[in-house]
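Lecture notes, part 5. Sequence design as translation. It can be helpful to think of inverse folding as translation between two languages: the language of shapes and the language of residues. The source text, in structure tokens, appears below.
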């Protein structure tokens, strides 16, 4: 006969899993999806496609059915859509370009963020509220963002968010490498591949110019064998880089650029 004590550890594990599911069920309903399914229109529909640095994250406030939300303000270091427009229309871009453009910021709404146990404290006094399966943006992070427009802007403490990230494939960390911003690495930026900011700019332009062709490429690449998973320098378990699939992607992007006679996209900006 088996003693009941033998079942205590599995029972506690099961109860813990059920409890976590109950706590995060709303967040999971928003964020958990199959990352192997290609995004059809995210790049085309995005209000902002930028690289920037998070300069402010509000304390969490009451949100909707998906849980507490916070507003994230990002200082734009490169507006990829604008860079593409300037390259494709150099004369028009030069006439509109301000020699000393103001520091531009973008504010979006995310699920989760820091919270205070006591309202009178000006700093976070509790842990961070997180969303299942998605990293919560924090102050100081450098990120690559694809943000969709909100039908109803969110206002909180004098700040307004007009966009939001949609599930996976919307927000990625950027690792500083090289001397210019275009040499920095967007981690797992396109089908789990590390790509430079310049490579991503070229991929975005090719997608905007030939969306069906790039969608077909994404479907083809998703079926190719990925590089083995290893622990990186930060101790994260992720695909080994460089990825054998990246040359296939960039060859197709180069072919589109040549067929459409698109001008080169030069490096922009200094490393910050």
């Amino acid at each position: 006969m088996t003693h009941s004590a033998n079942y205590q550890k599995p029972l506690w594990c099961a109860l813990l899993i059920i409890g976590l599911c109950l706590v995060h069920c709303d967040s999971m309903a928003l964020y958990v999806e199959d990352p192997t399914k290609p995004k059809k229109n995210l790049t085309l529909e995005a209000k902002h496609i930028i690289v920037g640095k998070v300069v402010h994250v509000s304390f969490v406030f009451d949100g909707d059915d998906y849980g507490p939300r916070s507003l994230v303000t990002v200082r734009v270091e490169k507006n990829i859509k604008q860079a593409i427009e300037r390259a494709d229309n150099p004369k028009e871009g030069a006439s509109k370009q301000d020699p000393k453009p103001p520091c531009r910021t973008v504010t979006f709404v995310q699920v989760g963020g820091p919270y205070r146990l006591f309202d009178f404290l000006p700093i976070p006094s509790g842990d961070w509220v997180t969303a299942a399966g998605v990293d919560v943006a924090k102050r100081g992070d450098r990120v690559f963002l694809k943000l969709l427009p909100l039908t109803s802007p969110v206002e909180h403490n004098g700040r307004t968010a007009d966009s939001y990230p949609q599930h996976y494939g919307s927000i990625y960390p950027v690792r500083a490498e090289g001397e210019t911003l275009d040499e920095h690495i967007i981690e797992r930026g396109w089908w789990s591949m590390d790509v430079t900011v310049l490579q991503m700019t070229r991929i975005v332009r090719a997608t905007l110019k030939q969306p069906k062709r790039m969608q077909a490429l994404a479907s083809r690449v998703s079926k190719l064998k990925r590089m083995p998973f290893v622990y990186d320098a930060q101790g994260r378990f992720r695909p080994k880089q460089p990825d054998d699939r990246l040359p296939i992607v960039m060859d197709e992007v180069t072919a589109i650029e040549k067929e459409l006679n698109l001008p080169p996209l030069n490096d922009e900006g200094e490393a910050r």
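The translated text above is only one of many valid answers, since several sequences can fold into similar shapes. The CA atoms of residues 11 and 95 lie 69 Å apart.
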